[in-house]
Design a protein that fits this description.
alpha/beta, 16% strand, globular, 3-stranded antiparallel beta sheet, 9 strands
Length: 313
Amino acid sequence: MLISPTLHALFISRIQHRAMRCDLHLHSTASGMCDTPGLTRVCKESYNQPAAVYDRCKQRGMSIVTLTDHNSIDGAEVLRKHPDFFLSEEVTVRMPSGTEAHLGVYGITERDHGEIQRRRSDFVALLMYLTERKLFFSVNHVFSGLTGHRDEEDFTWFASYVPGLEVRNGLMWVEANRAAERLARNLHKIPIAGSDSHTLAGAGLTYTKIPGARTVEEYLTGLRAGRGVVYGEHGRYLKLTADIFSFAGALLKEKPWCAPLVIAAVLIPAVTAAHWFNEVRFCKQWMARLERDEKKPRMIWDIDAVFKANWAN
């Protein structure tokens, strides 16, 4: 049957070009306390209320919404009523080298969360579970020093077994994001994007779009199939500095007894500058090393003797 160009333009082309947007890296109060030395008992990772995050994302055109709190799904409790919300988390995992990495895991269940947390101190065990459950996951801010020291072996594991890489993070230096995009392209990884916003200011400004998706399930299927397209803002020094000032304001509102610390606010631009330059240094260091040394696939049986012994038991 032939379809006229007019009918195709009016109906079919609109369906084909429909797309769903989702910010795949967002935090709320459920992310817990800040892990920065000296602030662990004072400051939260985020002062975003989950409902406020949802509302801000919808205002900015997100078709569906998720939260990726650190090792937590508690923020989902008030959002379950929304059919366009789905469960995800950002997992702090220990690599075989002893370093830590952040993995975004998407479309999970409460049972998945429990099993993920049980295995997150062992990357290989976690990897086996995620693969068995066919859950999509990605390495977040791969060229950032936020999780501490990185080992070259970590990138070999990422190259072999992680299906996705976050190639646009709304808080990361633009060159770090571009380096991640080149790495994803070279390793044939699925690119994703998210704001990584710990304040409402950045929520929904960096996102992943899936053309043709109409439901959460279709979005996740398209994500796993590599049909995502990244959009939105990169990080900037001024943006980061503004977020830290916002944190200071939220802290004082929640804990007025911290008012004497306000005097330290004059140091915020210097502190964020030091952090920013360290991120640039970290990124350049690993960009140079990875461009020099081609990554070879890591076989699941190519593991150390300790793990072999544990597996045998």
